[in-house]
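Table S2 (continued). Query chain:
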Amino acid sequence: MCKPGDILTLSIKPKRMKLPLATFEGAIRVGQEKAVIAEEITMTFGYAEARNQPVPINGAAGNGAVEAHPSTPLRAAVNA
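Corresponding output:
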């Protein structure tokens, strides 16, 4: 049983990935004790073009320094 103030740890690992779906399995732990086991978590995703323009770093305007925006989609870290 989880109580307010408990720290929950989610660990997942991929099962199948075929665009636009990804399926994972995993568990949620409270400390070292398993609270929940997920046999299948399915997510759908897609890629979108970034529409934001680079923003100057630390308000430095005109010196050519801009904040880097990745051209690839965000990747999540997965415990394998």
